[in-house]
Amino acid sequence: MFLLYGGLFFLLLSRFVFIQYTGTAEGQELSTKAENKYSREQTLQASRGKIIDRNGEIIAQDTLSYKMIAVISPSASNNSSVQRHVTDTAKTAKVLSNYIDMTEQEIISLLDKNIKAEKYQVEFGKAGRDINNQLMEEIKSNKLPGIIFIEDLKRLYPNGQFASHLIGFALKEEKEDGTAEPVGKMGLEYIYDEELTGTPGKVEFKSDTKGFLLPNAEKMVTKAQDGLDIQLTLDKTIQNFLEESMNKVQEKYEPEKITAVVADPKTGKILAMSQRPTFEPNTREGLSTNWLNEVTEQTIEPGSTFKVFTLASAIEEGVWAPNARFKSGSYTIYDRTIRDHNVVGWGNITYLEGFQHSSNVSMAYLLNQIGEETFNEYIKLFGFGQKTGIDLPNEASGIIADSGPVERITTTFGQGTTVTPIQMVQGMTAIANEGKMMQPYIIEQIVNPNTNEVVENHKPTEKKSPISKETAQQVKEILESTITSEIGTAKKFKLNGYTSAGKTGTAQIAKPGGGYYWGRNDFLYSFIGMAPVEDPQLIVYIMVHRPNLEPTESGSETTSEVFNSVTERSLKYLNIEPENTELAKPIKMPNVIGENIIESQSKLEAEGLKTVVIGQSDKVEEQYPVANASTISNSTVFIKGQGDIQLPNFKGWSKRNIMLYKSLSKLPIEIVGEGFVTEQSLTGGSIVTADTPIVVKLATPDEVTNMETSKEESLTDLPQD
């Protein structure tokens, strides 16, 4: 017995020595096995990058949501006084089917299949993801054993229908490992999917068999890297003005399509862009088979709005004689007769009257004076027949119809030749911007939020000028006359308090199989305009396809409702005062950096500018607008120094100016609502610091009107003497 037990002892000792020396047992690395048993790894989610407007307002972002999981293994309830796993699949399925998009039988099958496979837990796929806090609490109130929730991220579009074909949407897709992450499917979400997608992080640690962190165990953290943020040139407020006005026209006239763009002619920045039909990106409700961004990817025959560029070519060539006369009505070339839109014309009229009447025949005569080849060169200089280079993919080029004399004539009034809306806007910048044509762009910058590094920074790009400053000024004056003249076709586009200029268009729409639709409800009605004329701040282009018009209505009713509403509200929002706008003159912003605060204030006000001072002492450290920027008299400028900040009276301020003030002052101002300031939590003149909470409430002009109407109605209900 002694020898037997002694031998076993030496055998066991030898085994210990062998394992200690080699680190293996039965051919397996023990250290690796232990590492696998006790090591844990937890994934840290990365947020998808934000899409924001030019003022930092959120357009798309990740928001907190929850994912529902069913724990189905009985082992989860070991050593527990309560059940921590699903015990009654039928009851669980019956309750959950009231909250998620799965039937009772589908839930029972999912649970039973995975219980049979001895899985620890199971997810519910798409139906169990993107659950909001309210729904989670409702499900929890049923106290179903084994139903748990973990935090997740959901892509949110807080503005709803908002430049939807431009922004697009992202949807979660399941990967091979069972996890899901958002993938861009359309628009900017798709175009910049790689940049917007973040890199998940992880936490690695050692734990016991129950998952608790072991004493003195190291924990290794690899931080998640959020996706890049994309800042657009869009202005949320102007975009909302556009969306609202387009909704009204859509509801009233039920057109086949609407397309609209708002741009800054001085920079080429796109401030707003939308189309109808549109859709709700959070739910994809309303999304059709048309996923094209029609501003850049769809071509149209522009109609009479194209006459702007024929006119500019004639003036630049020195052949425009506004008081010379021609016979309107018809113009014959070979076997083709070109007619004016009223068929009979207006008799012998001047070329200026011809333009104001939107005469096709006047354009045919002008082409003879310009020369066909010369005109073709001007059209190319204005950017037609080629991509603008906007920072969006799949841009269409359009086709200049120049195969023969008839096609060249019809091009002068926008028929036969095809263009994109963005080409029209680019060409119009040359008219509004003293002959300087600006390339349109939509991306302001792309920023890495993890480091605040600017990865891409897009700047205004000036293209070769197609016309001179003098020609641009003359074209603007003639375009203004189409609105102010008694015979002008654009009288409906007169603004309240602001000057405007532009050109109407009525174009035939090509049929898919050839030929054109015909009839007042089968045309493409359009308008391209600018305001104020003295120093244009906005270009607005609207197209309404095949609206349902009453017998007494004209096509201009549809486009003027959008142009007038968007332009007037946007100019007020941009703090371009309507009073005396016709007398306002462009001003080159002086440089007051380094000057005494009081002296610089007097200097700016002597130039006819309104000043807002941030900090009451020392020298000017910042100014907005920056030196040499173009502004107009009576507009607001901000100068910042040191010392106490005296709060202004914000009433009537636009949201843009509030955001500028907030950015420069670094005050914690909470902005509630859209439009213009109606209330503020602290009165004007209060001395505030960086720790002073300030709330300002805004309302749109329509909301203010409704409030005033309600107040008046309530007063009329009072007893009368």
TrEMBL record:
Domain of life: Bacteria
Record key words, sorted: Membrane
PANTHER family in the cross-refs: PENICILLIN-BINDING PROTEIN 2B, PEPTIDOGLYCAN D,D-TRANSPEPTIDASE
Cited Pfam families: PASTA, PBP_dimer, Transpeptidase
Enzymatic reactions: Preferential cleavage: (Ac)2-L-Lys-D-Ala-|-D-Ala. Also transpeptidation of peptidyl-alanyl moieties that are N-acyl substituents of D-alanine
Domain PASTA intervals: 641-700
Pathway assignment: Cell wall biogenesis; peptidoglycan biosynthesis
Organism from which the protein derives: Psychrobacillus psychrodurans
One GO CC term on file: plasma membrane
Lineage of origin: Bacteria, Bacillati, Bacillota, Bacilli, Bacillales
Name this protein carries in UniProt: serine-type D-Ala-D-Ala carboxypeptidase
UniProt cross-references to InterPro entries, sorted A to Z: Beta-lactam/transpept, Beta-lactam/transpept-like, PASTA_dom, PBP_dimer, PBP_dimer_sf, PCN-bd_Tpept
Record's keyword annotation contains Membrane: yes
Xref: PROSITE patterns: PASTA (PS51178)
Family as reported in the entry's similarity comment: Belongs to the transpeptidase family.
